[in-house]
Request: fold
Amino acid sequence: MDIDYQACEFAYTPRAAHEPKRHPVVVVGAGPVGLATAIDLAQNGVRVLLLDDDDKLSHGSRAICFSKRTLEIFDRLGCGQRMADKGVRWHVGRVFHRADEVYSFDLLPEEGHERPAFVNLQQYYVEGYLHERVQALPQLDLRWRSRVVGLVQHADHVALTVDTPEGTYGIEADYVVAADGGKSSVRALLGLESHGRTFRDRFLIADVKMTADFPAERWFWFDPPFHPGQSVLLHRQPDNLWRIDFQLGWDADPVAEKAPERVIPRIRALLGEDVQFELAWVSIYTFCCLRMDAFRHGRVLFAGDSAHGVSPFGARGANSGVQDADNLAWKLRLVVEGKAPHTLLDSYAREREQAADENILASTRSTDFITPKSAASRLFRDAALQLAKAQPFARRLVNSGRLSTPSTYLDSALNTPDADDFAHGPCPGAPASDAPVTAAGVPGWLLRHTGGVFTGLYFAGGAHDAQAFEHAVQLARDPLPVLTLLIAPPGQGGPGLLEDSAGLVAARYGATAGSYYLLRPDQHVCARWRGFDLQAVRGAVARASCNQTITEREPACTSA
Reply:
């Protein structure tokens, strides 16, 4: 039976008498981003103090669309399967203009992936599952009703003042991760701001409880007959709950429009008079596309909504925040453990600032198309929609929200540039591709064997396999170890090998016998070669951890 996470309240936990004066990492904010960051650090051996000023999980659906890449990250955090099982899986979207369907699209048309393109899952479930994972990690101390009211940076630590029901106390941290949302108190304490664009429009979110025969698809209407002149978005969620977003316009009264007598007629116009439903949650929102100028400020790192914000079209908010956590945690762990210089953290800021810019650009373009601000832009939009009905090329002009995709860090100086020719496959900076594999006769998935540490993929079947096995043993003993997975061709599995059971690993990586891919702990490719050269791999690991001077181009590892 599911827990009602919306009703959960958590007791304040007093500070332990034996608590150390200084913590390696303090994470502020126990939403999805803060929880993911803290879990990633703690399950890899770093002591973490997680503070939140509330005593409950989120209310209402809020973020509901979680992408394939985010689910793969949650797999590594130990709770992805629960989210995939509970969530409504979908990969098809439909776009309507007035009463007509313009076209449909498929976000994951090929087979051979463990995770779907997206699941719809209310944010309180995501937070609830992450919170339960927290309880299994002795390295992680989560304290509710603990508000950070003071923050001072020193050369070797950050001093924090925490306000609680029992009064205030002071603690120190080597590093602080600010994941405390769009109204970040940490950002305010440092006198920092986010900059960007506010959109002059209002939207109504209604969570509706009902039994309906709509498929598990994303439906988006432009100017529908039941809500003329505006747009509407429909998503199915678990528990017979449906999320409906109605565009209202800037002049809509944000208080009056939440009243049931205003909301219910809008829903009836969409669903029909005979459909029985009840309102579960209603909210009015406006939105901004903005970000901080820099995500690193000394020993304070910003992640999620505290660092950047986007419109809700395209499911880029929570997904990009979790991917912030994925990028930051392994780098912060290596720095705390003394295995990398603190300047590695600059690459977090640079890579995720680039990702934020990509998301903001995509989100801004979506919003401008969905909510045209002039008669001319509306004329262009409607013409594009009409043309797209019959002409597939015009569908690229239609923008109902470009859906979240993981960033590729093409310009990251943690990458080792290609020296060999690859016609296709994930390039340095790209997230690794998943595919089915078999280990010791048991079917599974490639990405389940990666992450957390540097991982090599060696494609066996060539003349140098014996030497490659020796290299793999040596790399596993290095100060920054590399776990090398030996990928065998279909039908050639055996002890210590992952069999490429469907041939999709080699196909998706453009690999031939002897090829070698090096993955970072966050499952992004940082180097690849057509042959397995021990010293080349060691050099790429040093580069990716900022443990060597980078001379080929502008250094990434410089002080913030």
